[in-house]
Amino acid sequence: MTSGPWFRLAQEADADLTLEFMGEYYAFDGHHPDEENSPAALAGLLRDDSLGCIGLIQDGDAAVGYVVLTLGYSLELFGRDAFIDEFYLRETYRGRGWGRQAMAFVEDAARSLGVNSIHLEVTRPNTTAHRIYRKLGFEDRQHHLMTNWIARPSGTGPPRIDRVPELGSGTE
Are 114 and 80 in contact (CB under 8 A)? Predict the structure, then answer.
């Protein structure tokens, strides 16, 4: 292991490595991987930098994590914004400041793309991540990220729900 990470942008040749990281991340964070459709979604991002970029976190020659930054636009936030869609660092590299350095890399990359604000999503039970992201300047805007699949890739079923929705929420 080196004294600190360095970063590089993923290229199409890094697709298999990125898919490996995606599998590790999804297992860690409780996501449900889609081995049929994920490769095509990844290829789309790797081929079109107007959609965003993937940064690989390196320890010497070995990649030890990745972060996906996708681009959007917000009137409320005065222009171009970005979303950290996925962020994963192998366990042996956590707690050593590598994640903080990766976030600094992401912020620099976002600034170079004219981004005004960065969003991210954290699972509610991951209180450690909540604490870390707050220290890095992220704020809970008291909004909930909600998703409506208007075009689902072929072969995928409905999203899995890991808990029973609350009744009487006023949204029935």
Answer: yes
Q: How far apart are CA 152 and CA 45, in angstroms?
A: 17
77-91: per-residue pLDDT in tens?
999 999 999 999 999
From edge to edge, which strands make up the β-sheet containing 6-9? 6-9, 52-59, 62-74, 79-89, 117-120
The phi and psi torsions of 165 (rounded to 5 degrees) equal: -60, 150
pTM of the full structure = 0.83
Does domain 6-135 correspond to CATH entry 3.40.630.30? yes
Segment 105-148, tens digit of pLDDT: 999 999 999 999 999 998 888 888 899 999 999 998 888 888 88
Q: Give the residue extent of every domain in the chain.
A: 6-135
Of 67, 12, 86, 9, nearest in space to 44 by CA:
12
- Is residue 114 within 8 A of residue 79, CB to CB? The reply is yes
Answer for the pair 85, 69: CB distance below 8 angstroms, yes or no: yes
Instruction: Based on DSSP, count helices (H) and strands (E) in the chain, helices before strands.
Output: 4, 5
